[in-house]
Specification:
This is AMP-dependent synthetase/ligase domain-containing protein. The chain has 16 helices and 27 strands. It is an alpha/beta fold and 574 residues long. It is globular and about 115 Å long. The structure holds malonyl-coenzyme A and adenosine monophosphate.
Length: 574
């Protein structure tokens, strides 16, 4: 009997122990299982691509046609398919996260990543890898001197600087100046002729995430970081695709710099969204473009600033007109589907000369770093109006307001007003400058562009210029006269300086400096002065015209009337 009881007890104990073990181990095993799965998911996420609209579109292009070329890199002489692009983006994303020891989080979480790469395939991989990792791209300007690069880097406060080998000479000075920001030497990607598998994809990041920071000059003397989100970028690209009907049959010859929206959105993002091929050139060279156009049908689109068209005309006149190339050049350019001019006013003589040579009527559109593209003429050549930038793009709201009173200019009034813009195209903020951001918006949420326009009764807009004389457009670059003045004033020989824009057929405006020298300093000359200033600022900001004066006229407030200065010294350049 007692033996039976003890056996029963033993069995009960065994059962209890089993239950206890199960009670402890099942949650433990479940916990371990879930943790492993989470870690596996994170590991997978390190190399997988978020389903952002641009990336999903690229995946579909790759699935539709495994051989579809996304980028032709003219410097490398290599072509890269959409498939390879996504695979390389996945690899670089992983490298970036590993470098920053963020494999566990698998997310840059809006950390800024600055990169310096020439216009080419590696630039695109850097940009997409940062986006895939959840970071904010800060594309650095390839022609900026060290001081300007340091300004952008200090202001954007990046977690990492990616340097293409041709910029490796900047590594030591950057590290000396910014010892806490690691830099990363990019190993350039090479064309992979073997079959490439697509990386895995995971759920999208929120589109409200910050994605891109472009440095732009404003009415202050320091450039500001203009921040756009994935929603902005997707909208800006998508509305161009709709308006200009980009397709996967398009082939763009891309010659624009890649630290501004013209090259980044119109050139890269919209083309890649629609499955087109982008042929990337390191910089604009008229001989190369004409040579490519002579090969009729090998490209379909070209986007540029008016100075580029002016250079193309000059090159044609000097080297192609009346030669055996003339017919091919004219016919090749005529065959293009879409040739667009923007970023600055297109002078009528340039427009007419280009039409005479190529038969193309340049499509004009209006845009800005803060809004992407806002207004555009139509695809139909017949609907393009001389001197007009056209009508608001789909989804973009545009209005004109009176400069003094803020009253909204009624439709059909043909009265000049300030352009204000609203829509998903409009940027999110100036980086870490909440007051500057607020200042540029009306209380009812419209962005104040600072440009003046008229609108005809048919709704077409005609840009009249900028309200501020302190903003100069030269070669399509916006330049702050105040920034140039501040940098010039740092030179010993300069006591006072006024920087103005002079009307110019080739450049739109030229940067001119009126200088009063410090007594006793050697007389300044333009060429050595330009050389000296190249240490301080990008080449396109440096004055190309110099006027030495004994006295600069100011009003009782000590202010200079820049319009009067231009009238006084360059009466024909107003
Ligand atoms: C270069 N130089 C300039 C200059 N750019 N001078 C005045 N203004 C400029 N913008 C100087 C150089 O320092 C050099 O001087 C000399 O001119 C000859 O240089 P280059 O090599 O012949 O010029 P190049 O490099 O060919 O530049 C010309 C250009 C370039 C038109 C190709 O300026 C360019 O790519 N512009 C596009 C800018 C752009 O993308 N803007 C879009 C912003 S977005 P030296 O002394 O060294 O001989 C935007 C929104 C929108 O506006 O609507 O799109
Ligand atoms: P950015 O700030 O460098 O992006 O330059 C934007 C500015 O370029 C606008 O505010 C306008 O002043 C000017 N701009 C852009 N497109 C045109 C155009 N088609 N005609 C005249 N000015 C233009």
């Amino acid at each position: 009997m007692s033996l039976v009881i003890s056996r029963d007890r033993q069995q009960n104990w065994a059962l209890v122990s089993l239950w206890a073990a199960a009670a402890i181990s099942i949650p433990y095993i479940t916990f371990q299982f879930l943790r492993n799965r989470q870690q596996q998911t994170r590991r997978d996420k390190v190399a997988s691509i978020p389903s952002l609209p641009l990336f999903v579109a690229a995946k579909n292009h790759a699935l539709n046609d495994a051989a579809k070329v996304a980028i032709i890199d003219k410097t490398k002489g290599q072509s890269f398919t959409y498939r390879q692009l996504l695979a390389d983006v996945s690899a670089l994303k992983k490298q970036i996260l590993e470098t920053l020891e963020l494999v566990q989080a698998a997310d840059l979480d809006e950390r800024r990543i600055a990169f310096l790469a020439p216009a080419g395939y590696d630039y695109v991989v850097c940009q997409w890898a940062v986006w895939a990792a959840g970071g904010v791209c800060v594309p650095l300007c390839t022609t900026h001197p060290l001081k300007e690069l340091l300004y952008t880097i200090t202001d954007s406060d990046p977690s990492l600087i990616i340097l293409y080998p041709s910029f490796s000479h900047l590594k030591a000075p950057l590290q000396e100046a910014k010892p806490n920001i690691p830099s990363f030497d990019l190993t350039p990607f090479v064309e992979n002729k073997a079959p490439v598998s697509l990386p895995s994809f995971h759920v999208s990041l929120p589109l409200s995430r910050r994605a891109l920071m472009i440095y732009t000059s404003g009415t202050t003397s320091n450039p500001k970081g203009c921040v756009t989100t994935h929603k902005n970028i997707t909208f800006q690209s998508d509305c161009l695709v709709k308006a200009w009907k980009y397709t996967s049959s398009d082939h763009l010859i891309h010659v624009l710099p890649l630290h501004h929206v013209h090259g980044i959105i119109n050139g890269l993002a919209a083309s890649l969204l629609s499955g087109a091929t982008v042929e990337m050139h390191p910089k604009f060279d008229p001989a190369v473009v004409w040579n490519r156009w002579c090969d009729k049908g090998s490209s379909t689109m070209f986007f540029a600033v008016p100075t580029v068209y002016s250079r193309l005309i000059d090159y044609f006149d000097a080297h192609i007109r009346s030669t055996k190339l003339e017919q091919d050049a004219r016919q090749g350019a005529k065959a293009l589907r879409l040739v667009v001019s923007g970023s600055a006013a297109l002078p009528t003589p340039t427009k007419l000369k280009f039409t005479e040579i190529t038969g193309q009527v340049l499509l004009e559109r209006y845009g800005m770093t803060e809004i992407g593209m806002g207004i555009s003429c139509g695809l139909e050549v017949g609907s393009r109006i001389d001197g007009s930038v056209g009508w608001p793009l789909p989804g973009v709201q545009v209005r004109l307001t009176d400069k003094e009173t803020g009253r909204i200019v009624p439709d059909g009034d043909n009265e000049a007003g300030m352009i204000e813009v609203k829509g998903d195209n409009v940027f999110r903020e100036y980086w870490r400058r909440p007051e500057a951001t607020t200042k540029e918006f009306t209380p009812d949420g419209w962005f104040k562009t600072g440009d003046v326009a008229k609108r005809e009764s048919n709704g077409a807009y005609f840009i009249q210029g900028r309200a501020s004389v302190d903003l100069i457009k030269s070669g399509g670059y916006k330049i702050s006269a105040l920034e140039v003045e501040r940098k010039m004033l740092a030179l010993e020989a300069i006591q006072e300086v006024v920087v103005v824009g002079l009307a110019d057929e080739e450049w739109g405006q030229r940067v001119a400096a009126v200088v009063k020298q410090r007594p006793g300093t050697p007389t300044l000359e333009l060429s050595p002065l330009r050389t000296q200033l190249k240490e301080e600022m990008a080449p396109y900001k440096i004055p190309t015209v110099l006027k030495l004066v004994d006295h600069i006229e100011r009003n009782a407030m000590g202010k200079v009337n820049k319009k009067d200065i231009v009238k006084k010294y360059w009466p024909d350049k107003v």
